[in-house]
């Protein structure tokens, strides 16, 4: 009898909620409920709606129908009964018969540009209402997008968990992404306008308010384009107008502006393009990357661009980046802005190779805005390389591998956003889709929790049943990239997690965002298993070479090659390899992702062709194959044996000596201050590994020479104070060396394999058993030995 009152209370709660059209959710009596929206009606004000407000209703109806099979009707008057979703940006709507519950204070978030209030009013028992009240039409759209992220849905069912009352406005007014329709992109060039519209819609649902196209640059014909570039340029403008999304274009001058004929043709092309655009809000001109014109040519050209632009689109403006400008050229731009104050200029864009953002904001006249142009699409050789990345990933996933990095990019955004008016990210495909969402949401609310952002993403794209598990799976994919891959046992746990999710949600097998995650989970595990396997093969090969004196040089090399070639004769994890192959084909079919130059006609090896590099050797097999013929050609057996001994001991110099492969995060234990994801990557990028791109990605050098690090140096402890040491290093540039802050001179020495720099260690520096080596950050060092003589 003691539990009877609680039971009665739950009964009364359930009955009361049912009377309001609600359903109790928690059997333990918690005050949780859900509003049943299965038979809801969308109510909009009568008359011609602004584009964003009309789009809000359309998107709600179509996205719900796609997920549930239910199609909400749209009406202009309030129904007598039943659940209602009311959309409006007006203060009152005659004919609704409902007083608009708008709060009037001007400083409230829902009163600011693009702000909204999303809440549920259950005061009318027969007609509970989900209100989306926008400060303006865009606010209504963004409120509708937020509602979609909160809905609990399944086939034939849709509910909204209560309570809900969201009052918000964006912190940054510019929130967008570059989606250039050109051959260089690894997926966009395969899309038709319907795919573009869906993607733009989805970006806007998460808070993006602009996109950037590339109408002219990279004129190569693409084998994938379903329509011509001029036609798609026009259609993208129409899509943006339909959703009230700002339409930007990126228009470099990759020719000499002294060429008057070419300059005139470019201006004519600009004007013709402007006249084709139903909507155009901004024209962005990069000072460099590409282009190599000085400000004295760029600024008059942009003034002429403005003269062609403003008569056609009076509210549009030209934007300029200072990319690759010298200090003198940057100073010239600021002097021009201070004296001329051009009205055609909207602001400055800070992109890769631009001056630092904080200083740019300080020097920029206040009348001009500052826009971040962050590279979220590349993993290496880029503006924000991923810290602590393993060399094995660099060799296989490359610059444009699938790269969900929510924690990393949330930190990059927040480090620099306060100096800016917002961002338009640099993207060359859909492999960075998670990153786009993180930037969109953080641009709206810099304090948004990363995991909550991902749950909103996975709920909307994958469904509520797997939302939290999939969000955690994406976080796990990012963790796969942190630190030494061979030691990262969680990589296999991440694959197990995604395999479980595949079994739980087989209906998502053709969802391209799902395919991206599953591919990365399989790819990472395959690369890790290969790394471990092939590293052991090289160790065995080196052991054979170390025994060359008894085997004979020729027999030792033959035996070493046989061991190294087991990666082909006895391949590692063919099951994972086959899965990677199948998923790459599936992504090409589902969204046009081109992961192979030969199979999928990717525009280049560097452009997301991860399938072409999935079997790249993760040991020095290729280098051995090239080096052994040179050794066989040496004049004597003793010369051959000396060279083989040097190779065998290359990374194992013996007791009391040390070796660091700088840039290889798993083989550089003595490096000082390696960057970590938990620090501020946007402001301290110099300590991350650097992975040059040589021979179109198929470089056959020793792996150690394919990475370096602009590190502060290396530090050693527990040295023998009575011993004599020598420092040896490899670097492609001259290195100015200091030991314990004392400059030391070195010599160059040709080992027969590679030229090295050698520096004797003064005896007095190691009396305390410690030694620190430092050098200029401008000298990327590949390898460092401390050799005990």
Structure overview:
By secondary structure, the chain is of the alpha/beta class. It has 4 domains: 33-168, Chitobiase/beta-hexosaminidase domain 2-like (Chitobiase, domain 2), CATH 3.30.379.10; 174-475, Alpha-Beta Barrel (TIM Barrel), CATH 3.20.20.80; 490-652, no CATH class; 689-788, no CATH class. It is built from 23 helices and 29 strands. The strands form 6 sheets. It has an 8-stranded parallel beta sheet. Strand 1 and strand 2 form a beta hairpin. Helix 13 (450-462) crosses helix 14 (467-480). The longest helix has 35 residues, at 512-546. The N and C termini lie far apart (87 Å). Residues 1-31 have low confidence and may be disordered.
Features:
single chain, 789 residues, alpha/beta, Chitobiase, domain 2, TIM Barrel, 4 domains, eight-stranded parallel β-sheet, six-stranded mixed β-sheet, 23 helices, 29 strands, disordered N terminus
Spans of at least 5 consecutive residues with low confidence: 1-31
Terminal residue distance:
87 Å
CATH architecture name of the largest domain? Alpha-Beta Barrel
Give me the side-by-side strand order of the main sheet.
17-16-15-14-13-12-11-18
Number of distinct beta strands: 29
């Amino acid at each position: 009898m003691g539990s009877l009152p609680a039971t009665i209370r739950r009964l009364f709660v359930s009955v009361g909620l049912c009377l309001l059209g609600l359903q109790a959710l928690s059997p333990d009596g918690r005050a949780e409920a859900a509003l049943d929206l299965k038979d809801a009606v969308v109510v909009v004000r009568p008359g011609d709606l602004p584009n964003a407000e009309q789009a809000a209703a359309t998107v709600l109806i179509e996205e719900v129908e796609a997920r549930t099979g239910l199609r909400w009707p749209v009406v202009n008057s309030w129904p007598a009964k039943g659940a209602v979703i009311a959309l409006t940006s007006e203060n009152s709507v005659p004919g609704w018969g409902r007083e608009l519950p708008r709060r009037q204070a001007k400083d409230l978030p829902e009163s600011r540009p693009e702000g909204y209030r999303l809440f549920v009013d259950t005061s009318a028992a027969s007609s509970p209402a989900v209100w989306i009240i926008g400060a303006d039409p865009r606010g209504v759209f963004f409120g509708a997008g937020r509602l979609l992220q909160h809905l609990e849905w399944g086939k034939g069912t849709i509910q909204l968990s209560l309570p809900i009352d969201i009052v918000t406005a964006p912190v940054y007014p510019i929130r967008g992404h570059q989606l250039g329709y050109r051959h260089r992109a690894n997926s966009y060039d395969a899309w038709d306008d319907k795919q573009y519209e869906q993607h733009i819609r989805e970006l806007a649902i998460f808070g993006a308010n602009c996109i950037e196209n590339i109408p002219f640059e990279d004129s190569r014909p693409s084998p994938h384009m379903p329509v011509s570039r001029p036609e798609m340029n026009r259609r993208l403008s129409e899509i943006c107008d339909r959703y009230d999304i700002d339409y930007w274009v990126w228009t470099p001058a990759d020719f000499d502006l002294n060429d008057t004929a070419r300059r005139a043709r470019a201006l004519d092309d600009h004007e013709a393009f402007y006249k084709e655009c139903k909507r155009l809000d901004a024209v962005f001109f990069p000072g460099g990357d590409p282009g190599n014109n000085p400000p004295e040519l760029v600024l008059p050209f942009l003034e002429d661009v403005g003269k062609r632009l403003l008569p056609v689109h009076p509210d549009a403006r030209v934007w300029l980046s200072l990319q690759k400008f010298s200090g003198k050229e940057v100073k010239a731009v600021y002097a021009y802005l201070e004296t001329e104050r051009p009205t055609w200029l909207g602001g400055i864009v800070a992109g890769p190779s631009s001056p630092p953002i904080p200083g740019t904001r300080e020097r920029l006249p206040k009348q001009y805005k500052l826009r971040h142009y962050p590279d979220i699409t590349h993993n290496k050789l880029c503006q924000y390389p991923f810290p602590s990345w393993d060399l094995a990933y660099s060799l296989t996933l490359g610059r444009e591998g699938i790269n969900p990095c929510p924690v990393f990019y949330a930190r990059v955004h927040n480090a620099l956003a306060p100096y800016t008016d917002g961002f338009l990210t640099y993207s060359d495909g859909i492999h960075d889709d998670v990153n786009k969402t993180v930037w969109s949401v953080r641009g709206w609310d810099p304090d948004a929790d990363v995991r909550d952002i991902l749950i909103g993403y996975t709920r909307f794209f994958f469904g509520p049943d797997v939302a939290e598990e999939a969000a955690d799976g994406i976080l796990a994919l990012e963790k796969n990239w942190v630190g030494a891959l061979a030691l990262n046992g969680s990589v296999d746990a991440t694959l197990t997690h995604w395999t479980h999710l595949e079994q739980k949600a087989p209906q998502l097998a053709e969802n391209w965002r799902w395919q991206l995650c599953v591919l990365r989970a399989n790819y990472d595990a395959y690369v890790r298993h290969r790394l471990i396997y092939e590293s052991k093969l090289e160790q065995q090969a080196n052991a054979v070479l170390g025994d060359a004196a008894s085997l004979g040089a020729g027999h030792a090399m033959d035996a070493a090659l046989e061991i190294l070639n087991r990666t082909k004769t006895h391949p590692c994890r063919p099951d994972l390899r086959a899965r990677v192959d199948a998923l790459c084909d599936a992504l090409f079919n589902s969204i046009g992702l081109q992961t192979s130059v030969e199979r999928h006609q990717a525009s280049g090896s560097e452009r997301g062709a991860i399938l072409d590099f999935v079997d790249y050797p993760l040991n020095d097999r290729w280098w051995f194959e090239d080096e052994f013929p040179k050794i066989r050609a040496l004049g004597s057996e003793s010369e051959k044996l000396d060279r083989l001994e040097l190779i065998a001991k290359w990374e194992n110099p013996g007791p009391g000596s040390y070796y660091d492969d700088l840039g290889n995060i798993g083989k550089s234990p003595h490096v000082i201050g390696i960057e970590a994801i938990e620090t501020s990557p946007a402001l301290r990028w110099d300590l991350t590994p650097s992975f040059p791109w040589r021979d179109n990605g198929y470089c056959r050098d020793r792996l150690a020479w394919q990475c370096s690090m602009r590190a502060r140096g290396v530090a050693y402890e527990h040295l023998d104070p009575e011993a004599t040491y020598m420092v040896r290093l490899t670097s492609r540039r001259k290195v100015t060396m200091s030991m314990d802050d004392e400059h030391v001179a070195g010599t160059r020495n040709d080992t027969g394999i590679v030229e090295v720099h050698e520096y004797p260690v003064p005896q007095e520096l190691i009396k305390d058993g410690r030694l620190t080596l430092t050098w200029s950050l401008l000298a990327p060092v590949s390898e460092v030995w401390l050799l005990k003589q």
